[in-house]
Amino acid sequence: MQVKELVSYLNQIAPFSYQEPYDNSGLLVGDPTAGIKGVLVALDCIETIIDEAILHGANVIVTHHPIIFKGLKRITGANYVERTVLKAIRHDINLIAIHTNLDNVHFGVNHIISEKLGLKHVRILSPKAAINHKLAVFVPHTHSDLVREAMAKAGAGMIGSYDSCSFSLEGEGRFRPGIDANPFLGKAGELEVVREVKVEVIVSQHALNAVLDAMKAAHPYEEIAYDLIGLSNTNEYIGSGMIGTLEKEMEVMDFLNTVKRTFHCGAVRYTNPTKSLVKTIAVCGGSGSFLLKDAIRAKADVFITGDFKYHEFFDAEDHLMIADIGHFESEQYTSEWLVAQMKKKFTNFAVRLTSVNTNPINYL
């Protein structure tokens, strides 16, 4: 199996097109055509992770955080980023990152956190807009099922937990083939009237090219009439953060202590409780202060995330309690989830969870 096949699978569970503009997910170092000998999974890619991969004979490392985040103008080993990349290259180790694209999908990082907390009725806290398209294609009645099924197999018609969603409307198509045409129906120079079906599907941005290719391959016409319309509405299954409810209300300090134990926190930094009992919980793995207003708007009792700055804590303004559990702590279970997904999918190479704690922060 080649590295590009693993990249393709990761793109299926968390499309790279969903990463934030500043991000750098995907295959960062390596050869897409290289065969996979073994995979090591970690939260961060640093020198000790490269050493661990070498020790276990793994030539692929999958991490949540990309080691190459900003542009590298030279690779001389002057810092830990350059040293890590150099060592990976020297030992033919391929580096893959699955970062904010995994943050932004429904069953990604924030769903993992929500499950650890036992949250129910979870939903995306800040859904993304304008990432879907409506594709409407006009097909002769005899081939409508064929085209509809081909588009569905390519990823069209995905709405939440439903697939193969479409809408069809029958009508009459008219056209006159030109003298140089090679029509599927009709004759050159003669007006043709055909019973046609307008098939409409929703297509996410990441699947658009594949769906268009599948539609064109299955369609019998030489010239295909179709509409492609960008939609401005939000996709409730793609976006930042997550919010849900505890099965039962909890006393606020009992809840904080449960969070501390669950995520093995050295410390939890929190604002003054606004309620004695809490039930509605918002979460964001990593650095989530940008979602504070969304958490307030959603009437969360507690907002759990990491990397809040001192003055940002004041922004809660007694609307909710902020609980900063740490960046590493909030995302630590991402790696074991990725291992589980890859082990279910692939059996022809070993997938190993790192034994190295990459958290750069210690607590006294």
TrEMBL record:
This is GTP cyclohydrolase 1 type 2 homolog. Homohexamer. A divalent metal cation 2 binds at H64. A divalent metal cation 1 binds at H65, D103, H327, E331. GO terms for cellular component: cytoplasm. Belongs to the GTP cyclohydrolase I type 2/NIF3 family. One of its GO terms (molecular function) is metal ion binding. Keywords: Metal-binding. InterPro entries: DUF34/NIF3, DUF34/NIF3_bac, DUF34/NIF3_sf, N-reg_PII/ATP_PRibTrfase_C. It comes from Fluviicola chungangensis.
